[in-house]
Amino acid sequence: MEEENKTDELEKQYIVVKLGSEQYGIDIQYVDNIVRMQRVTRVPKAQHYFKGVINIRGEIIPVMSLRLKFGLEPDEFKNATRILIIKIEPQAAIGMIVDEVKEVITLDEESIDKVSGTNDERSAYLSGVGKQPDGLVSLLNIPLVVIDKENAG
Amino acid sequence: MDVSQYLEIFIDETREHLQNLNEQLLVLEKEPENSDTINEIFRAAHSLKGMAGTMGYKRMQRLTHDMENVFSEIRNGKMKAGAALVDVLFRGLDALENYLDNIINTQDEGTEDNQDIIDGLQKLLEEGLGGESDGEKEKQPEAPAPAAASAKERKHLVLAEHELHAANKAKSDGENVFEIAVYIQESCLLKAARAFLVFKALEDAGDIIKSVPEVQDIEDEKFDFEFSLVLLTKKTRPEIEQMILNVSEIKEVLVEDADLSAPSVEVTHTAQEQVTEAPANNNKESSETEAASSAGAAATAVAPAPKEAAAQTVAASPAKETETKKEPPKTTAKANAKPVVNRSVRVDIEKLDDLMNLVSELIIAKNGLTSINDDSQTMRDGNFNEQIEYLERITTSLHQSVMKVRMVPIESVVNRFPRMIRDLSKKLGKKMELYMTGEDTELDRTVIDEIGDPLMHLLRNAADHGLETNEERVRLGKPEVGSIFLDAYQEGNNVVIEVRDDGAGIDVEKVKNKALNKGTITEEQAAIMSDKEIIDLLFRPSFSTAEVISDVSGRGVGLDVVKTKIETLGGSIETKTALGEGSNFIIRLPLTLAIIQALMVEIGKEKYAIPLGSIVTLEDVPISDVKYVRNKEVINLRGSVIPLMRMARVLDVEPVAEEPTNLTVIIVKKGDKQAGLIVDNLIGQLDIVIKSIGKYINNSKMISGATILGDGEIALILDVNVLV
């Protein structure tokens, strides 16, 4: 997959998800799977945005709430709620809860703007903003979202 | 030849041989005359050399070769295994281990020649054999290559006129004309193949204008163990010699300037004699030195030539070798540059047979279940349960058998320690002995891989800090030689490893003062701390009481690392000490990591698993029995006061509405410490498969993992070691 990206650096595919009224794009290379919301087992003393762990075909995967991570209101689990299984390393998967998975879009470099230096909590996790006919998509810097300072401590 | 497929076997076997050599050398150091040991050493060294040669690890081969020479002399009773010699041999083994490490990491042996060790061996060899015969002197590296002396001993090739012409022309063009005689080991099975390899190597270096016997005859194996040829080349004599010696199973090679004068010299018979004489003295495959020393002065004059030349070229060739080697294999090296991690387990065939039997039973059980399905309803009820029970029995045995396959005796880790203690003893100038018991205690492979370093650390500590100096010991009326004990044994579901010494023990006051100085604890804390708690301070990061930081230990990165490592393995470490009598570090490790027996409990509405190994008893305690000590809940259980922990509070679980009149308390232990965990409900005992919950989620270590229950639900596993 990495090689593909190198040869085709101009175009990247993103999965568009919704959190409340906002749209976020997640680089498709990190997405391993998308599953429906399921029973999450709470892990005591974990970071506040970790909802717990789930069982995906015998593998135990920690699940974080992007809403809590970004300081939005807590999730309300609906029919459209999904967990994106993200893998940035082969042996360590992580789940992210989103309100809805919308579509897959292809963005070329032209239609991605770098984020301006605003300093709120969310923009720290963004790698850019993608322009789409029906609005803007904030592109998430997934490795930063997963491994962040708060997490290391 | 592509040998990479044999790499793993090579690594495995080399390790075994090295270990064997280490052990035997230790024996040899104590009993220099033990012929069994000497033979064993010789065999191991010889196999090692052969293997390194086959795999193309030249430097490794050279070093083993020289070591083998020494062993061979010892075996023949020509040398004594003195302390100096054993030291050099041990250094040689260390160097070989380095080569092996390099090979494991990069598939290349590296570029270290260890020339000093080789020189050391040569020197000892000379000293050991010194004065035995005059010819021996020529072994010294300074001695000139005695080509002239050897010339008369062997048959010269007679060049035909056109060959002479070609040779003369080449010579005038500045090329060297060498006459080469190659002797193949008598034990060689495929001498034609070896000869072919020699020819191939030489053809790369120049032109072969003549060979005796004819090339065709050599290919058909129509020759004894020698052949001669004339080579036109731009390369120097040592280079050519080295090239030929690189082919394995070549006993020796003679390279000399060809006689380009008119054909004159006729056959003398010494060469033939040398070949026949040598095997008489060498029972087994011989090395050139051995052949040399036994075949008398005349032959020795011949032998050192290639040997010495080889020694010289080694210095020059590595550079060249790496240069030439680097280019072509680069692509392949890059592709598989990953370390060759050795993940194999040697399994006793019996264990495999057991597995096979169980699998066949499993199939029978499956067939039983299928046939029930076909039977009528009435048959089904009774038979079904029976079959399920049968199946259960088989899966349990299967589980045990598979676990057994993963079990490795601890021996594979501890057997390098005697050597280490010997070295430490020399380095520290203290006399000490290591006594080991229970080397056959088995542990899971993954644990075995990790436990070596912590144990080594504890042993170093014992040797350096634990034991007093010899004088001090005598003064205290203790035996002069210090003792260190390493005992391993199984205890329930745990394996216990004790590292014990009869040294000074831990000075609690000293530790306390140190901690106060360092600000690790306050005066008030110090006043109320028990000795045990103070000793536990030693396991804090960067805390070393050694007054002098020595090379061996005492850098302050020590016991805390040991502790962390053991805890990641799911074990615990405990210290017992008596001032003046010694200290004892007790390591407890789980037998296996993957599957454990656990007690399932309910806390609030959540399910948790507590490893059975750490549970002492289950108690039903009336709420009125709960007492308060310094504002903490405790119970007095059969005379001992045990602190209580309300798990619902510890784990932030929503509490159940009402406080029951009786508390369900699980008494757990970590070493000597006990604690009572208050839970809401007991579910039952279960075999659980431990799974990691990933590294991203923070859980303050209270949760050691998770497991998946029969219905797909997840239960977290509580780590009692952290809680208590």
Tell me what the structure shows.
The complex is a heterodimer of chains A (about 150) and B (about 725). Chain A has 4 helices and 11 strands; from the N terminus they run H-E-E-E-E-E-H-E-E-E-E-E-E-H-H. With about 150 residues, chain A is mainly beta. Chain A has one domain (about 1-145): OB fold (Dihydrolipoamide Acetyltransferase, E2P) (Beta Barrel). Chain A starts with a helix and ends with a helix. Chain B is an alpha+beta fold and about 725 residues long. Chain B has 5 domains: about 5-140 and about 325-330, HPT domain (Four Helix Bundle (Hemerythrin (Met), subunit A)); about 145-315, Alpha-Beta Plaits (2-Layer Sandwich), CATH 3.30.70; about 350-410; about 410-590, Heat Shock Protein 90 (2-Layer Sandwich), CATH 3.30.565.10; about 595-724, Beta Barrel (OB fold (Dihydrolipoamide Acetyltransferase, E2P)), CATH 2.40.50. Chain B contains 27 helices and 22 strands. Chain B has a 6-stranded mixed beta sheet with strand order 14-18-19-17-16-15. A 5-stranded mixed beta sheet of chain B has the order 6-8-9-11-10. The two termini of chain B are about 60 Å apart. Mean pLDDT of chain B is about 75; it is low at about 130-155, about 265-340 and about 545-555.
